[in-house]
What we know:
Layout: H1 14-26, E1 29-30, H2 40-52, E2 56-60, E3 63-66, H3 69-115, E4 118-121, H4 124-137, E5 141-145, H5 152-167, E6 171-177, H6 184-196, E7 199-203, E8 210-213, E9 217-222, E10 230-234, H7 237-252, E11 255-256, H8 268-280, H9 285-291, H10 296-310, H11 315-325
Parallel strand pairs: 5-6, 6-7
Antiparallel strand pairs: 1-3, 2-3, 4-10, 5-8, 7-11, 8-9, 9-10
Helix pairs in contact: 1-2, 8-11, 9-10
Amino acid sequence: xxxPAADPPAELTPDATALYARALGEGVLLAGREGLDWAPERxxxxxxxxxxxxxxxxxxxxxxxxxxxEAAAAELVGPLELEIRRRRLEAERTRTLLRPxxxxxxxxxxxxxxxxxVELLPEVGQVRAxxxxxxxxxxxxxxxxxxxxxxxxxxxxxxxxxxDLLARxxxxxxxxxxxxxxxxVVQRHFALxxxxxxxxxxxxxxxxxxxxxxxxxxxxxxxxxxGPPGALVVREPAAVDYLHRVLERDWDHARPFARTxxxxxxxxxxxxxxxxxxxxxxxxxxxxxxxxxxxxxxCRRHIAELMREWGVESRFQAGVLAARLGLAGEEGGPS
Length: 335
């Protein structure tokens, strides 16, 4: 049977305190002669608590003597402190054992960074760790294209990193599709980030996620396998420069974010223009929805509204009319 005093009580009840005071006054506590008008069960409970806290010690059958709180604490806490010291020594031995490998790892990591023009990170944890590392060393600019609104967990993960970059004077520019403006949550996030100094624009189409740090390293999603995508990390200067210039071109044709009370706001025409351009090119609804980062159902609703607005009965007529009106050109061009 286990010792009931092995696991001390979590608190000291008023009954236990009163019984302890009685024991101190008498110098001894005798079973059945406690001098308290309590039921036996109540006395036993208080006595058991004092024994668990090492404040009462048996000195014979039905006889207990009080111990000082200091002695009780030493008996209870002493083994814990010994275990803590043992754990600390074990931790320090582990650190000492691994310390010589730190410089080896750092040098290998630097060499890999210098030599690996393209690196594949299959695990999300690896991607986040490298993003944090590159963010800490970023000095000038982060340029991002984001094809969809970030989920809550991802926002919580990325927002502190972005705010830290802005606080250090790093310029952050992010490009989103117009359709994300339909979400009030997204608009609140955009407002918070722009107030902190970030620049956000929206456009008709965003192909996929791309992050470029200081024009020296780029992150692309790796969707070659099922499950959450990893990342392709590009360090080759010519390739990074090309990706940056492509993203810069899309940025130049995009619309600056302006908070609106409902829907796409000023970006509504941009949404229509993107749909019309793809309609005129002969794309099907599914392809248009994918390219404009919206659901097929929402895409078909927009197409139906355009056809009603223009008084045409077929997608082909809509495409022809769009070309004739100059609406099928690139966003930012003539309308």
